[in-house]
Design a protein that fits this description.
Layout (H helix, E strand, L loop, with lengths): L1 H13 L1 H4 L4 H28 L5 E8 L4 E7 L1 H24 L4 H20 L3 H22 L4 H29 L7 H7 L5 H18 L8 H8 L2 H11 L1 H13 L7 H19 L5 H21 L3 H32 L10 H4 L1 H14 L6 H17 L1 H4 L2 H18 L15 H19 L2 H4 L5
Antiparallel strand pairs: 1-2
Helix pairs in contact: 1-3, 1-5, 3-4, 3-5, 4-5, 4-11, 4-15, 4-21, 5-6, 6-7, 7-9, 7-10, 9-12, 10-14, 11-15, 12-14, 12-15, 13-14, 13-20, 14-15, 14-18, 14-20, 15-17, 15-18, 15-21, 17-20, 17-21, 18-21
């Protein structure tokens, strides 16, 4: 079983070796092969863990023993959700990369493989040292994806992304060091930290809580640390947006969960954090209705969804936490789907300005109806993964905070109404329909179908990943 964990993380890194010996045209095939193998191994590992009653599976190798640093990989009931989500999004983005990346293909695939291995490493890291290391690698790789392969203002967006990332990383590192130095038996191992957490002094916990909260609020992102995200998504290449929204934002949500597990004091501050997440969702929903660019609009809906998912974590209830994790799983898949469709529309029409797009359904009905499905899944229509996540989040939030816990439900209603208005204008308006320059390729259609099927499967059979949670 242990080789499964190492394979999930290190296979993308191993595929870097042949990347330097194949032609640029075959570089995409290597990334696709890597993503397919990782998807199969990830599903196999989670399935075998389910058969064993979902006991945590761990792999440990000594590294710097004097500092308590080991190379730990661990698959838990929490991380399993993120590993499956990441594998799905990475495979879909690998399927379509050749449709959007036309230059410096070897460099792109190098960055993609680095991002793939490091993002999976974040969720499987069994100690805070690896958690931070993989966090940093993925941030650097995403910076270069935006900076090299993004749109017209890519350099501004990439540097803004980098500045916020550096601040988040600094606070994360300081928070980790505060926890490490305050433990009686100094260690980075997450299980050991949790077991010793009650012995941490209150002042140490409070300092670590403040530092880690800032790091994770930036990464989620939540108001007022969110302004980097719309710029990054607007300028990032389509696959960059898929990975950034689908996976990297979950670093903040997963970190938030770890913070509550490692710091008992965090539960005392759950209410102000929940209020912040609820306000962030409502604020972003109001900003959504002012957007005139399709990708920027989707970016703000991403902030809404992540705010609601984080609200579930901050409820600290069994249903809320399970719902928050499942909402992030759904968000990762669905938001990647929406960004992929937006990228295909941009390729077909040469613009993503809402006022210039008309009658997409007349010429490319597949994209139009797929976008409609994506919006259904985003707002949580039954039989989609979004419904399961939102339902559990608001059950948990209502139980913890009464009527205030379900107030952010208004954000879902607002973005739902606005998105369907956009759908009518952009996709189904019959007047002045514009002709596309080209139609989406086969890879794009397969990826859209794959992401849509994943959302339906996880919406109709939530027990595949929720069975370990007592909700």
């Amino acid at each position: 079983m242990l080789w499964f964990l190492a394979a999930i993380v290190f296979l993308p890194f191993l595929f870097l070796i042949p990347l330097f010996f194949v032609s640029e045209k075959r570089a995409f095939a290597l990334s696709l092969a890597s993503s397919l193998v990782v998807l199969a191994v990830a599903i196999g590992a989670v399935w075998l863990a389910q058969l064993q009653g979902f006991q945590s599976l761990s792999f440990q190798q000594g590294y710097i023993q004097s500092l308590g640093i080991t190379l730990d990989l661990e698959l838990t009931r929490y991380s399993a959700i993120f590993v499956v989500m990441s594998a799905i999004v990475l495979f879909a983005s690998a399927l379509v990369a050749s449709s959007f990346i036309k230059e410096s293909q070897r460099i792109y695939n190098l960055l993609f493989l680095l991002t793939a291995g490091s993002t999976l490493g974040v969720f499987l890291a069994g100690n805070l040292f690896l958690f931070y290391l993989f966090w940093e690698i993925s941030e650097v790789a995403m910076f270069f994806i935006i900076y090299i392969f993004g749109g017209y203002d890519r350099r501004y967006a990439a540097i803004k992304f980098l500045v916020y990332s550096i601040v988040a990383s600094l606070f994360l590192l300081l928070g980790i060091m505060v926890i490490y130095s305050g433990l009686p038996a100094q260690t980075f191992n997450i299980v050991s930290v949790i077991s010793q957490s009650s012995s941490l002094p209150q002042a140490t916990q409070l300092l670590a809580l403040l530092l880690l909260s800032v790091a994770f609020l930036i990464k989620i992102p939540a108001f007022p640390f969110h302004s980097w995200l719309p710029d990054a998504h607007t300028e990032a290449p389509t696959t960059g947006s898929m990975i950034l929204a689908g996976i990297l934002l979950k670093f903040g949500g997963y970190g938030l969960l770890l913070m509550f597990l490692m710091l008992p004091l965090a539960s005392a501050y759950a209410l102000p954090l929940a209020a912040l997440f609820g306000f962030s969702a409502l604020y972003s929903a109001m900003v959504v209705i002012r957007q005139k660019h399709l990708k920027r609009m989707i970016a703000y809906t991403s902030i809404v969804d992540m705010g609601i998912a984080s609200l579930g974590i901050a409820s600290t209830s069994a249903a809320g936490v399970a719902g928050g994790l499942y909402a992030m799983l759904s968000h990762g898949i669905v938001i990647s789907l929406l960004f992929l469709i937006a990228g295909a529309v941009d390729e077909a029409y040469g613009t993503l300005l809402i006022e210039r797009l008309k009658g997409v359904a007349k010429n490319i009905p597949f994209l139009a109806y797929s976008f409609v499905f994506g919006v259904f899944a985003l707002v949580g229509i039954p039989l989609t993964s979004g419904f399961i996540g939102d339902l559990l989040v608001f059950i948990g939030a209502f139980g913890a905070y009464s009527i205030g816990g379900i107030t952010p439900l208004a954000a879902v209603l607002i973005i739902g109404a606005f998105l369907f208005l956009v759908i009518e204008r952009v996709f189904f308006s019959a007047s002045k329909a514009i002709e596309p320059r080209l139609s989406p390729g086969f890879g794009i259609k397969v990826a859209i179908a794959f992401l849509s099927a994943s959302a339906v499967l996880l919406g109709t059979a939530p027990s595949l990943l929720l069975s370990p949670f007592a909700v």
